[in-house]
Amino acid sequence: TTTCEPRCQWTEWFDEDYPKSEKAGGDVESYDKIRRAGGAVCEQPQGIECQAENFPNVRLEELNQHVHCDVSFGLVCRNDEQVGLFKMCYNYRIRVLCCGYSH
After folding, report:
1. How many other C-beta atoms can be found within 10 angstroms of the C-beta atom of residue 36?
2. Digit-coded pLDDT (tens) for 15-59
3. Which domain holds residue 14?
4. For the residues of 3-37, what is the DSSP string, one character each?
């Protein structure tokens, strides 16, 4: 018998949105937005990595921003959820882990 082994690889980094400064603004890196821009995002990503464009070596938890990074939809950062002096989202980018099966 042949077993199917998942073959997984990370996509390139995607940055399709840029944060706007108004209170209702933010940064949204959704799969739909990336696909509309021609990005190849699989239908069911198995993992996600999110990072601030200007701080690629800093973990999200250390940025002191309220950010939703979720494998089911991508990344959402809303200016009105930020606390502290700087009430604007950083510019974020994401990449996802796509898996296919081969024999």
Report:
1. 10
2. 999 998 888 899 999 999 999 999 999 999 999 999 999 999 999
3. 5-102
4. --EEEEEE---B------SSTT-EEEEEHHHHHHT
